[in-house]
Amino acid sequence: MKRAGILNRHLSGALAELGHGHEVLVCDAGMPIPRGPRVVDLAFRAGVPSFAEVLEGLLSELVVEGATAATEIRGANPAAARLLDGHFPDLALVPHERLKELSGDAHLVVRTGEARPYANVLLRCGVFF
């Protein structure tokens, strides 16, 4: 049994399968889930778990070389924008419709229970060496 880190067996296993260049969409409860990517749905109730909790947990286990979010996050969800800016100084911003298109190429989708708008980010995996 794992002592720490991500304990959800489906999420932990999916993370172990990721490689360099794979993309992971971390999304709120309202984001349309594209057909194709593996999905780990963590949503339990509105707001649980939060986008911030899930993102922090993922970043403690993943090497991320880039991130993309929706331009609309700046005005509609300043708290999530600050969170992303704190982790990703070179955060790429695209219109929300474009982010939905890009998410179709994700290797993994992690759905949170977040109920605030535009709490979505597409992470691009890097390598640890």
Word description of this protein:
The structure is a single chain. This protein has helices at residues 9-16, 51-59, 73-76, 78-87, 96-102; strands at 23-27, 38-41, 64-70, 92-94, 108-111, 121-125. It is an alpha/beta fold and 129 residues long. Strands 2-5-1-6-3-4 form a six-stranded mixed β-sheet. It is globular, with a radius of gyration of 13 Å. The mean pLDDT is 97.
Features:
globular, 129 residues, alpha/beta, six-stranded mixed sheet
What would the average pLDDT be, to the nearest integer? 97
What portion of residues is helical?
Answer: 25-40%
In this structure, how is the largest beta sheet organized? 6 strands, mixed
pLDDT below 50 for ≥5 consecutive residues: which ranges? none
Number of strands: 6
Strand content: 15-25%
Main structural class: alpha/beta
Distance between the termini: 27 Å
Write out the strand line-up for the largest beta sheet, numbering strands in chain order.
2-5-1-6-3-4
Radius of gyration: 13 Å
Q: What characteristic shape results from the CA principal axes?
A: globular
Structure annotation, total helices: 5
The secondary-structure element order is HEEHEHHEHEE
Set out the fold topology:
Elements: H1 9-16, E1 23-27, E2 38-41, H2 51-59, E3 64-70, H3 73-76, H4 78-87, E4 92-94, H5 96-102, E5 108-111, E6 121-125
Parallel strand pairs: 1-5, 2-5, 3-4
Antiparallel strand pairs: 1-6, 3-6
